[in-house]
């Protein structure tokens, strides 16, 4: 059992981390860092609550610390946990600069600790389905991909993600997921061009983005809008042998928010009406969506810490994603296409 400290008890901590820490067998929750102990004890009556990270690290002495606090705290808190001889899992975005990301990787290497980033959407069912289709060479050569995460949220909410501040806005929220998936599939692009804007009335942070990634043999477009109602396009992948089009979002987030147990037979599965289609010259095939499997992230994380197995999302693999986000923000500010020339970084 891995002694685990949960740092932060907001939406992310309660929705995307707590169910796995309490329902999977490999973890023992030894403490929570929160300014609202009554909220924690309402859910976890027997788990110690600490008002500060200093106290938690000193008293709980966790083997693993999970950082789920606001984005601008990730670097400092991850560094503090590494310095306390703890393995670390950081919510995305990893950090707000590639310099900080690289520094954390180097620190983890010095401390001989593992460092991971919570890119759970590597385990979305639709993304796993797309990877399977590519492994089966169904597309021939992929030439164009559209990857979107649109929702209908035309009115801003009063929360840190949507208020003004470092690391706020939809691009720092969803951009890491969409760009990470592109890097996982295709590696780094040759160039990119981005448009990141505030379009909602009374909006204080960016709420819409579109980024085009230019590869030598393909073009990839990722984006998000808060004005898309109904069933939304998730993927449209076009190749020389056919294309895969998928609508709707992975069900796991809504299932977790509804409190569905991880052991429920329907957890991670989509209904048939949500399956995508692969179309080619003579017709179309209905493609059953693979089971989404966020549990696998946590299972692989435990194996990485205890048995030196590969990480589900090693920090070193995420540094280029932070670099792409920085470059995209620069492209949007300058209104032009920029070459992707990323500096080398050390492995974690």
UniProtKB/TrEMBL annotation:
<dbReference type="InterPro" id="IPR051317">
    <property type="entry name" value="Gfo/Idh/MocA_oxidoreduct"/>
</dbReference>
<dbReference type="Pfam" id="PF02894">
    <property type="entry name" value="GFO_IDH_MocA_C"/>
</dbReference>
<dbReference type="InterPro" id="IPR036291">
    <property type="entry name" value="NAD(P)-bd_dom_sf"/>
</dbReference>
<dbReference type="InterPro" id="IPR004104">
    <property type="entry name" value="Gfo/Idh/MocA-like_OxRdtase_C"/>
</dbReference>
<keyword id="KW-0732">Signal</keyword>
<dbReference type="GO" id="GO:0000166">
    <property type="term" value="F:nucleotide binding"/>
</dbReference>
<keyword id="KW-0560">Oxidoreductase</keyword>
<feature type="domain" description="Gfo/Idh/MocA-like oxidoreductase N-terminal">
    <location>
        <begin position="2"/>
        <end position="119"/>
    </location>
</feature>
<dbReference type="GO" id="GO:0016491">
    <property type="term" value="F:oxidoreductase activity"/>
</dbReference>
<comment type="similarity">
    <text>Belongs to the Gfo/Idh/MocA family.</text>
</comment>
<protein>
    <submittedName>
        <fullName>Gfo/Idh/MocA family oxidoreductase</fullName>
    </submittedName>
</protein>
<dbReference type="Pfam" id="PF01408">
    <property type="entry name" value="GFO_IDH_MocA"/>
</dbReference>
<dbReference type="InterPro" id="IPR000683">
    <property type="entry name" value="Gfo/Idh/MocA-like_OxRdtase_N"/>
</dbReference>
<feature type="domain" description="Gfo/Idh/MocA-like oxidoreductase C-terminal">
    <location>
        <begin position="131"/>
        <end position="339"/>
    </location>
</feature>
